[in-house]
Write a structure and sequence with these properties.
With 294 residues, the chain is mostly helical. The protein folds into two domains: 92 residues, DNA polymerase, domain 1 (Orthogonal Bundle); 175 residues, Orthogonal Bundle (hpI Integrase, Chain A), CATH 1.10.443. The chain contains 14 helices and five strands. The chain has a three-stranded antiparallel sheet. Strands 4-5 form a two-stranded antiparallel sheet. The termini are far apart.
């Protein structure tokens, strides 16, 4: 691989006024990445896949803040390489959003394509397949927390308006979210054909105990198991049910949905909470062309 060429292009692509120490730090990351490609016997960018870049990042034993810095540098690197026609994807396709939140190493975001693969991987021929798929679909499309799905009550579903209207278990704040026809049909299928004949105010039933669930962790277990089954690359991301809620919010943001609307879907008390929750970097916000909130 002609590493010197790529390094030179990257250096020339830096903005004027950046201090030498910053440029040198970025170059260290780029050199480390190029050595990784050499070690994996990749000698041509035309054959490079995004998964290889994710594997490189995943191999680094760095602190969360340092990982974020690596991602920013690689995003810029691939923007420059893509601009020269050397690679098929740019930096924003590689890292659509990058967390700068110290609480987590990598933003637990799954793309709409990955979410679709996850949902389709759930085997509906199994005993609890329809129930599990229904709960995961609600999490992915409505953004409700696990507790609000697992303990969803019949009186919280408005079938005519196709909305779920409930008081959230965690916050006590009311949330009203619409659901799609796909959710509606799957729910009706579950209720008519698969739900145990148990008298309960709750929609979803634990088939082992023939009663309502005693823990909301069941949904995280279902999501984790099916992400593994679907073979979706983790890339340092978490695999719990909360990732579906976070992924929905991030996708809405990327589609230019105003933050106050996302706040309503998530059931947050204010848009400030939502902005902190999303932890989106400034360049990512510029890419989706959001207006600055007053």
């Amino acid at each position: 691989m002609n590493s010197a060429k790529y390094i030179e292009l990257f250096k020339n692509g830096q903005k004027e006024g950046i201090v030498d120490a910053t440029v040198n730090r970025k170059l260290q990351i780029v050199r480390k990445f190029l050595r990784y490609l050499d070690d994996t016997q990749i000698d041509d960018f035309s054959s490079l896949k995004k998964e290889t870049v994710y594997e490189f990042v995943n191999s680094l034993d760095y602190r969360p803040q340092t990982i974020s810095g690596v991602q920013f540098t690689l995003r810029q690197f691939f923007n420059i390489m893509h601009g020269h026609g050397l690679v098929s994807f740019d930096g924003y396709q590689l890292f659509p959003v990058i967390t700068t939140d110290k609480r987590d190493s990598v933003l637990s975001y799954y793309s709409p394509e990955e979410i679709k693969i996850l949902i389709e991987s759930i085997d509906t021929t199994k005993k609890c397949g329809i129930r599990d798929k229904c709960m995961v679909l609600i999490a992915a499309e409505c953004g409700l927390r696990s507790s609000d799905i697992v303990w969803l009550r019949f009186d919280e579903i408005n079938w005519d308006k196709k909305i779920i209207n409930k008081i959230q278990h965690k916050t006590g704040i009311r949330v009203i979210v619409p659901f799609t026809e796909q959710v509606q049909f799957l729910l009706l299928d579950y209720l008519k054909n698969h739900r145990p004949d148990v008298r309960s105010e709750y929609v979803f039933i634990n088939t082992v105990a023939n009663s309502a669930f005693t823990s909301a962790k069941i949904l995280t277990q279902i999501v984790y198991k099916n992400l593994e089954k679907a073979g979706i690359e983790r890339r340092c991301r978490k695999r719990g049910a909360h990732t579906l809620r976070h992924s929905l919010a991030t996708t809405m943001l990327a589609n230019n949905t105003p933050v106050p609307i996302i706040t309503g879907v998530l059931g947050h008390s204010s848009s400030r909470t939502t902005q902190k929750y999303l932890s989106i970097d400034v360049d990512g916000l510029r890419q989706v062309s959001l207006e600055v909130l007053e």
